[in-house]
Design a protein that fits this description.
Blueprint: E1 7-11, H1 17-27, E2 32-36, H2 40-46, H3 61-68, E3 73-76, H4 79-84, E4 88-91, H5 111-123, E5 126-132, H6 140-149, E6 160-166, H7 176-181, E7 186-189, H8 193-204, E8 212-215, H9 217-248, H10 252-260, H11 281-294, H12 298-325, E9 334-338, H13 353-363, E10 367-371, H14 377-384, E11 406-410, E12 421-424, H15 429-432, H16 436-442, E13 448-451, H17 458-462, E14 467-470
Parallel strand pairs: 1-2, 1-4, 2-3, 4-5, 5-6, 7-8, 9-10, 9-12, 10-11, 12-13, 13-14
Helix pairs in contact: 1-3, 5-6, 9-11, 9-12, 11-12, 12-13
The structure holds nicotinamide-adenine-dinucleotide (NAD).
Length: about 475
């Protein structure tokens, strides 16, 4: 089959589709990229004149959008038109865990992927390369291929054909632009070698050839799930050791440094924290668990499921420690929460540990003041499913149910007055520079500072009268916790 690539369509303008196509458009000015999405609000945000209003926050994203948007990069909801003109269609839609039916709670819901495949089958012309960019269960390409091949002709009665490839995305939110510009590898799985080389041509504009790997389609799909499972497993492993540190007198920072020097282990992903979040790790591991169960590999399924279980346990123990340190009750106590995004440098809150921790604290009666430099109040409300108090809230006219606490949002850091405790949940740079000696004077004594990210200036805090707890530090008597 002879075909050249000129027009590219990406279905799904989310955390993957948006930045990935922006990078491709930036690196390949001679190709046209149409990024389409059914969510019109999101499309409008991608087209916002004011680049601080883009729907996704990623360092470096604004700059590459500014250089390509409306030149060779277009965001719209014109899905049919974009498919009609495309030589390559990337499917980059969401694949969340199924909430009902067969495989509920574990397998991925493929309804959005299927809907895309049907649209592509209907509106494509000639020969089209269809690329799975979404993370998909192993053997999904087979499903896509079947849907694509069932009509044989498009809406116009013209003959059509397809090559389906898997090209999973390995970017990490928070460092997406750097990851896209300097990927460790680009993985292309498929059977049609010509199509695979065509796709590789796009990447070759900036990725060294030896970093482009070709595999069969199933290996490519499984490699993506496995990669996320290994990364999540490392976080669960270090967090479990963190809990051991707290009771034994060891310090997780020292343990991490020591084991990270072993070249077989390496130093990355050894920072303990409140638990992994983001839309992918949990979902992708559960997918692997489902796959193993489906093929009767019970022990394998159990092994990977524990990685998720220990993460949930880790999230719940942080709220418990806060309550315990504050004399067993946090009812009506003001607790400042620093950070709601699941990690720094992103506005994404999907599966953020902050959701569970904040909900647990509110349930215990706390009055939370939540700050995050990039997450909006409405996003936090959607995640907590609890309405916030307004900022001019008058405590005396309180008509709340007295059994549970409350929360309010602040976009400034002028929030420590009369706080009983501060809990750091996201490692934003601006939290590293907080002058704790001055803040300590504003808080109600005895006051606590809980650092779940090890970013607080420990030496500075030690000079104040703040009680200090940080994750994985059993080196001081006041830190020790028994379970
Ligand atoms: N977020 C990450 O860090 C990351 C990294 C690597 C891979 N992935 C994978 O990439 C995929 C997308 O993830 P995301 O974070 O970008 O999701 P997202 O929810 O941010 O974006 C998906 C977009 O697809 C759109 N969409 C859904 N159905 C559609 C349809 N039929 N037509 C047009 N648009 C449609 C939605 O409106 C949404 O804007 C998932 O499979 C995910 O597992 C995500």
């Amino acid at each position: 089959m002879n075909y050249s690539i000129k027009n590219i369509c990406c279905i799904g303008a989310g955390y993957v589709g948006g930045p990935t196509m922006a990078m491709m458009a930036y690196k390949c000015p001679n190709l046209i990229f149409n990024v389409v999405d059914i969510n019109k609000e999101r499309v409008a945000a991608w087209n916002a004149k004011d680049l601080s209003k883009l729907p996704i926050f990623e360092p470096g994203l604004k700059e590459i959008i500014a250089s390509s948007r409306n030149k060779n990069l277009f965001f719209s909801s014109e899905i049919k038109e974009a498919i009609k003109s495309a030589d390559v269609v990337f499917i980059s839609v969401n694949t969340p865990t199924k909430t009902k039916g067969v495989g509920a709670g574990k397998s991925s819901d493929l309804k959005w992927v299927e809907a895309c495949a049907r649209e592509v089958a209907k509106y494509s012309k000639g020969h089209t390369i269809v690329v799975e960019k979404s993370t998909l269960p192993v053997r999904t390409a087979e499903v896509i291929q079947k849907i694509l091949n069932s009509p044989k002709t498009n809406f116009n009665g013209e003959k059509i054909s397809f090559s389906v490839l898997s090209n999973p995305e390995f970017l990490a939110e928070g460092t997406a632009i750097n990851d896209l510009e300097n990927p460790d590898r680009v993985l292309i799985g498929g059977e049609d070698q010509k199509a695979m080389f065509k796709l590789a041509e796009i990447y070759k504009a900036w990725v060294p050839e030896d970093k482009i790997l070709f595999t069969n389609i199933w290996s490519s799909e499984l490699a993506k799930l496995t990669s996320n499972a290994f990364l999540a497993q490392r976080i669960s492993s270090i967090n479990s050791i963190s809990a051991i540190c707290e009771v034994t007198g060891a310090d997780i920072r020292e343990v991490s440094r020591a084991i990270g020097k072993d070249s077989r282990i390496g130093s990355k992903f050894l920072d303990s924290g409140p638990g992994f979040g983001g839309s992918c790790f949990k979902k992708d591991i559960l997918n692997l668990v489902y796959l193993a169960e489906y093929f009767g590999l019970k022990e394998v399924a159990k092994f990977w499921e524990e990685v998720v279980n220990i993460n949930t346990w880790n999230q719940s123990r942080i709220a418990k420690i806060v309550v315990k340190k504050l004399f067993g009750t946090i009812s009506d106590k003001k607790i400042v929460i620093l950070g709601f995004a699941f990690k720094a440098n992103t506005n994404d809150t999907r599966e953020s540990a902050a959701i569970k921790i904040c909900r647990d604290l509110i349930e215990e009666g706390a009055e939370l003041v939540i700050h995050d430099p990039k997450v909006s109040q409405i996003q936090i409300e959607n995640d907590l499913k609890i309405k916030p108090l307004s900022n001019d809230y008058d405590k005396n006219s309180d008509s709340r149910d007295n059994n549970i606490g409350s929360w309010r949002f602040s976009n400034s850091l002028d929030i420590f007055e009369n706080a009983n405790a501060v809990l750091v949940l996201t490692e934003w740079q601006e939290y590293k520079d907080i002058p704790w000696d001055l803040i300590a004077k504003q808080m109600i004594k005895p006051a606590w500072l809980f650092d779940s990210r090890s970013i607080v200036d420990y030496k500075l805090v030690k000079k104040t009268d703040l009680n200090f707890w940080r994750l994985g530090d059993g080196s001081q008597e006041e830190q020790k916790e028994k379970y």
